Inverse folding.
């Protein structure tokens, strides 16, 4: 049997067609989602092509398509609206978020338009009046962190194409009810979880043991993004595939509502989460990290 590609890899895969076809082989280009019991490749249009392992003739790894700064800016804009804290304000090119100190993401400023470092002092003042440290979210190519300035919590921003699908047994509600919050087991206030700007939220539950959040927001270029976050499986139910089924259900729900692209933000050293999303077809789009405004001014 031909060697099989790695999960998550972007490949051009040649495979054997059934007898009677006009040609013996054909090719598919996309990201590998599964290699056992069959090989599954998701194309850039969201179609999943399933190939028998013994029908794989050859493959080659294809470099990821380059990501432009404008694409990063559009995705970061949609992501900022999806996790905006309980108070937001535009300050020149910065989108400022405050969420009573709960999570870095909800309490950080994102450079979404062309900005200058001179504006950072004003950003710091805005957070100082709210009694929390001024954190700058610094995505690749949108904000250059000067050499020697410490950063924290680097994130992998991973993306994939999605479309309508099957929710499986995932139930989705518009707000995080008491049962959802109990399963979540993390100290993030409900108002922070339930905040979104110009978008729609879904809070999913599976088997009374797994919960997650998906936010639908639109980027300036018109792309309707689905951002999956707050995924948690209770300890007694882990390693049963619930996280993957939950996320798949959330993405299906989002696809039914017009989302065509999805993203997750994974801390770099969270190997388990990264492997999960790679197996679901997510690939690296860009990286982001946090830096304290005081270290910049």
């Amino acid at each position: 049997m031909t060697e099989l590609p790695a999960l998550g890899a972007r490949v051009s895969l040649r495979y054997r067609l059934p007898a009677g076809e006009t040609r013996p082989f054909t090719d598919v280009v996309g990201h590998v989602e599964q290699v056992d019991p069959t090989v599954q490749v998701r194309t850039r249009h969201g179609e999943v092509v399933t190939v028998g392992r013994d029908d794989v003739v050859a493959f080659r790894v294809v470099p990821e398509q380059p990501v432009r700064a404008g694409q990063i800016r559009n995705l970061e804009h949609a992501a900022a609206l999806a996790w905006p804290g309980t108070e937001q304000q535009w300050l020149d090119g910065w989108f400022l978020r405050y969420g009573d100190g709960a999570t870095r993401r909800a309490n950080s400023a994102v450079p979404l338009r062309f900005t200058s470092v001179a504006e950072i002092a004003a950003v710091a003042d805005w957070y100082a009046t709210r009694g929390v440290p001024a954190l700058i979210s610094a995505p690749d190519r949108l904000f250059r962190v000067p050499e020697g300035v410490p950063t924290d919590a680097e994130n992998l921003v991973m993306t994939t194409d999605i479309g309508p699908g099957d929710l499986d047994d995932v139930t989705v509600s518009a707000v995080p009810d008491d049962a959802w919050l109990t399963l979540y087991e993390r100290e993030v206030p409900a108002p922070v979880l339930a905040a979104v700007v110009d978008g729609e939220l879904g809070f999913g539950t599976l088997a009374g043991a797994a919960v997650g959040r998906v936010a639908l927001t639109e980027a300036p270029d018109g792309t309707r993004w689905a951002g999956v976050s707050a995924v948690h499986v209770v300890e007694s139910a882990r390693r049963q595939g619930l996280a993957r089924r939950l996320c798949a259900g959330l993405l299906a729900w989002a696809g039914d509502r017009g989302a065509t692209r999805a993203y997750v933000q994974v801390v770099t050293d969270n190997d388990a989460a990264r492997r999960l999303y790679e197996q679901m077809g997510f690939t690296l789009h860009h990286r982001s990290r946090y830096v304290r405004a005081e270290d910049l001014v």
Observations:
- DSSP finds six helices and 16 strands in the chain.
- The mean pLDDT is 92.
- The chain has three domains: 10-61, 69-155+289-295, 158-285.
- The two ends are 59 Å apart (CA to CA).
